Amino acid sequence: MIFMWPPLILIFLILSIVSINHFPLARARGQWCVVSPSCGHGHVDCIPIKPGGPCFEPDNLRSHVSFVINQYYQYNGKTEKSCYFSNTGIFVFKVPSYGDCEYNY
């Protein structure tokens, strides 16, 4: 004998499984996202922005993040989505390279 679930119970079970898998448990425990110490995940090389690297100076957040965002953008298909970063990335049309600091193209 084959057991058939009533449609409403089946829908309830499926929605329950989906919602359990998407509970924001991480927020309840506290979870944040910061740059990895290795900064190499996603094929982003952070060596140039580390002390002594060609893109370390100027030593400020905007300069370092711009370099990393550009690497991410270049590696991920140069799409609008890969430059979005919650509306903090922007497109520029002048080469941002300076001195020995070379931005990929």
From TrEMBL:
<dbReference type="InterPro" id="IPR044788">
    <property type="entry name" value="X8_dom_prot"/>
</dbReference>
<keyword id="KW-0449">Lipoprotein</keyword>
<dbReference type="Pfam" id="PF07983">
    <property type="entry name" value="X8"/>
</dbReference>
<keyword id="KW-0472">Membrane</keyword>
<keyword id="KW-0732">Signal</keyword>
<dbReference type="InterPro" id="IPR012946">
    <property type="entry name" value="X8"/>
</dbReference>
<feature type="domain" description="X8">
    <location>
        <begin position="31"/>
        <end position="103"/>
    </location>
</feature>
<protein>
    <recommendedName>
        <fullName>X8 domain-containing protein</fullName>
    </recommendedName>
</protein>
<keyword id="KW-0325">Glycoprotein</keyword>
<feature type="signal peptide">
    <location>
        <begin position="1"/>
        <end position="28"/>
    </location>
</feature>
<keyword id="KW-0336">GPI-anchor</keyword>
